[in-house]
Amino acid sequence: MKKNKVDSLRHREIRTGYLMIAPLMSGVIVFFIWAFFQNVYYSFTNKSSFGIPKFVGLENYVKLFHDEAFYQAFINTILYVVICVPAVVILAILLAVLLNSKVKGIGFFRVCIFLPAVTLPAAIGLLWKWLMNYKFGIFNEILGKFGVNPIAWLSDPRIVLFSISIVFIWASVAYQVIVLLAGLQGIPVCYKEAAEIDGANGIQRFFKITLPLLSPSIFFVCVTTVINVFQIFDFIYLMIPQGSSGTAASRSLVTYFFEQSFVKFHKGYGAAISLVLFFLILVITAIQMICQKKLVFYDD
């Protein structure tokens, strides 16, 4: 009798749990899972904005690997990753360590560092667009005070990619600092105290104690930053006018997907681009997960 009552109560709890997650799961199924497989199907069609899509097999993928603009976007995306990921991770670690120290006014500095994390990307993009304006931007105004000629931050093909990278790094560091600061504050004080008793200096404690124990948080920051950089779009879209001399030099795979799908309406071709990007991120993330076993230290 008692066992039947317990089983009935457990079944009721299970049904309630499924009922609670049903709205979320329905959204995930419709807008993520179903949309993903639909996108896979569209990549094998000539879908546009109008008419019934026709199955064309691998035609989009053959076209993709003969498209010079795709290769340029691919190289640009890799350059964004190479520049932004190390910069974000290193700056986030340094800032987190500084913000974890006990100095006067540390709360004010934390607020200043965290501001980009709560600022809309659209606002950040438009702000930096004006800061880097060729005629009226404050950067060129400062350079002019030192007798340096104005720099076309957002239109010079040699510079524009680095300009976008600077904005991305500035906007992304804040959130990663929060993650690493939480990791630092979770490190037991006893390890540092034991190292001090053994005569270890600050640098030795940082590399022998802090970094190994912070490695799970650093690994999370690396994985999320790599994914975010591969998906870079908003700052390029907001800061670089379409058709300008800096468009091709700053174009990423996501912006190229956007151009093909929603500007030229080659949605089947755009779907193929998005799938290539998906598998690229999947492979890179899988490699990171494999390396996790050797590079990440878990304090069990």
Polypeptide structure, described:
With 300 residues, this protein is an all-alpha fold. The protein has two domains: 1-45; 57-293, Orthogonal Bundle (MetI-like fold). Helices cover 74% and strands 0% of the residues. The chain has helices at residues 2-42, 59-64, 68-99, 106-114, 121-131, 138-145, 160-185, 189-197, 202-230, 234-239, 247-250, 253-263, 267-295. The longest helix is centred in the N-terminal third of the chain and has 41 residues, at 2-42. It is globular, with a radius of gyration of 25 Å.
Structural class, by secondary structure, is: mainly alpha
Strand content: under 5%
The percent of residues in helical segments reads: over 70%
Please name the fourth-level CATH homologous superfamily of the largest domain: MetI-like
Major sheet summary line: none
Rg over alpha carbons: 25 Å
How many domains in all? 2
Give the overall average pLDDT: 88
Give the number of DSSP strands.
0
What is the 3D shape?
Answer: globular
Enumerate the spans where pLDDT stays under 50 for 5 or more consecutive residues: none
Q: In the CATH classification, which architecture of the largest domain applies?
A: Orthogonal Bundle
Q: Under the CATH scheme, which class of the largest domain?
A: Mainly Alpha
What is the helix/strand order? HHHHHHHHHHHHH
CATH-assigned fold name of the largest domain:
MetI-like fold
**SS field, number of helical segments:** 13
Task: Give a short summary of the structure.
The chain has helices spanning 2-42, 59-64, 68-99, 106-114, 121-131, 138-145, 160-185, 189-197, 202-230, 234-239, 247-250, 253-263, 267-295. With 300 residues, it is an all-alpha fold.
